[in-house]
Amino acid sequence: MKKGNNTLGNIAWKFSERITAQVVTLLVSIILARLLDPEHYGLISIVMIFITIANVFVSDGFGSALIQKKDADELDFNSVLWFNLFFSFVLYLILFVFAPFISSFYGEGYELITPVLRVLGIRLIVSSINSVQHAYVAKKMIFKKFFLATLFGTLVSGVIGIYMAYSGFGVWALVGQYLANTTIDTIVLQFSLKIKPKMLFSFSRLKGLIGFGSRILATNLMIAGYEELRALIIGKIYTSSDLAFFDRAKQFPTVITYNISSSITSVLFPRMSIDQDNISEVKNIARRSIRFGSYIMCPLMLGMLGVARPFVSLVLTEKWLPCVPLMQLICINSLFMPFHTTNMQVIKALGRSDITFRVEAIKKLIELVVLICVMRISVFAIVIGMVACSTTFTLINAFPNIKLINYKLKEQISDVAPSLSMSILMCLIVLSIDLLNINDLYKFVIQIVVGVTIYLLLPLITKNPEFKFVISLIKSTLKKTNNSNN
Questions:
Q1: Reported pTM
Q2: Which of 41-45, 144-148, 167-171, 465-469 has the highest mean pLDDT?
């Protein structure tokens, strides 16, 4: 129980760190959305398609392999660092050369893609260093080190982005924000960790990491590739504004989903890798994590679904209202992310990256067929296809762990059901308030107050164990803070 509580405590700390940074990011993005046009976001979304796919090669695979390897040492970390740096330079040169061809693929009106891609592509080189730093922090379970780097990078890059937007730089304001964020994060984290790269390199060590890392890389490449293929298709078949509405609809649910999932992943993978020989302990950690993740994710996603229309109208202005129905669907799509994340981390931690690759290959094949069938109907149809696939994949992700750790499907459903049922009830009540003929500001405030009240009362009445854990965690944190101040 002690290990389980410690793991959840680490998840809570990581989640708190991410939320602090993302609150700043959210405020910055709201200001930028008011200053910039949907077309600016559409252009940067197209550029990010290619940078995101290229970034998978330098940020994934070897980082996971370093964490999973029990005896990873200084030589392993330095070998991966120098390889990542070299490979990121190669990828950047490829993007630099092919930028004009990408611009011509999208046609007239997209000429800015070439210079924007060439400048923002520098982010790849910085990310190659940052990925090894993240692997080191996860391996050592020193997640507090992320806080200063992430917060400082987010604040400074936000100021840069807002200043450039006010000054009329247009899409370059987003370029400046993205590039500054990654660069400052990496520099501050380097000083925080107090480790210096050494001229150490071993092909044999890299070769030893390739087996596990290559399958993780291939898996993540499939995931990122498919996600960006969807954006590429929307940008090509429809307008840049349609792509901007799609990306804006994803932004707010994704901020929540990413932070909860990355918090779970960052802690679970190294924790379960340490305990990979103790199957019962791995199962116990997985169950507690799914319960905790669902308790946090379900009300946030269904709550956002309920307040989506007044939220977008008030925060982003009415020019972004076309993204509301898309945002509501994406909230449903993101609902079971802790379920997905935990199940996949169990498989990875047990060293079965072959299973994760096969599972993702099957899922992406299904998604591709669905995407081809709906892509010319509408953007709304594309998102409906996303939701249908995600719901089906919840079961697919669960099946391997029935055999690997004896985590039965019935147990998994029972671990999610309490939080899901309470959140659905809360969502229905919040949605009914949206029917009231009152000012959007008043409506939004009432929805938030009612939604939070309902979700706090229901766990209290039902004596939900996750609610008790959150309360005890808050009390423990406050106690430690008071003791440190004294």
A1: 0.63
A2: 167-171
Report the pLDDT value the prediction gives residue 189, as an integer from 0 to 100: 80
Rounded-to-integer distance, Cα 441 and Cα 447, Å: 10
Name the token pair of 209.
């990491």
**pLDDT of 155 strictly over 50:** yes
How far is CA 172 from each of CA 32, 153, 182, 327, 341, rounded to the nearest angstrom?
12, 18, 16, 26, 34
Instruction: For 344-373, write each residue's pLDDT tens digit.
Output: 777 776 666 677 777 777 888 888 898 889
Number of other residues whose CB lies within 10 A of the CB of residue 457: 12
Round to whole Å and give the CA distance between 201 and 207.
12
pLDDT number for residue 142: 62
For residue 339 the two structure tokens come to: 């379920």
Q: Is 203 exposed, middle or buried, given 0-12, 13-18 or 19+ CB atoms closer than 10 A?
A: exposed
* Closest C-alpha among 266, 265, 443, 242 to residue 342: 265
Give CA–CA dist 309/101, Å, rounded: 39
Rounded to whole angstroms, the Cα distance separating 156 from 177 reads: 9
- Report helix, strand and coil shares of the chain as percent, to nearest 5: 85, 0, 15
Query: Which residue in 276, 230, 256 sits closest to 372, CA to CA?
Result: 230
